[in-house]
Amino acid sequence: MNRGIAAALALAVMAAGCSHCPVCGGEWGAARLAAAMREKKVEPRIVEVSGSVSCPERIAVLPTYRLRVRLARSGDQKAVAESMFAPIGSFPAFFLLQYDAAAYGADETLRLSAELLSGDTAILSTDVGAGIRAGEVARGIDLVLVRRAPASARQ
Predict the structure, then answer these.
(1) In terms of pLDDT, which residue wins out, 34 or 114?
(2) How many CA atoms lie within 13 A of 12 on its CB side?
């Protein structure tokens, strides 16, 4: 009889405990996970990237032209920060971008590039963007615009 009562009590404790354990995803586990996530809250760390965009080629900068400066992840080219300038006026054009470095790993490389746009078409662009380590403050970067090769020549 004692074994039967002990077995029934053990079964009741296991059933009650299991409905609230983190393994099964019960309320107890969800509450503990939420508390852990609140403790791990990462504070934003705003980093600045600044410099200028120059163009050695003499061109007439029309009022409809726009200059886009973009900081993107090297791997997937997803934009980290971007700024659009219109009208440009003349070169060199100066830029300042800000982004949250806490969202990126210290070993991640970001690529800074610029394009001179007429409508949606890039007329001039940087052929090689500047590589920046995520989290580093970068000042005085000079991006140089060059003429883009026609689409048929790039293939």
Answers:
(1) 114
(2) 6
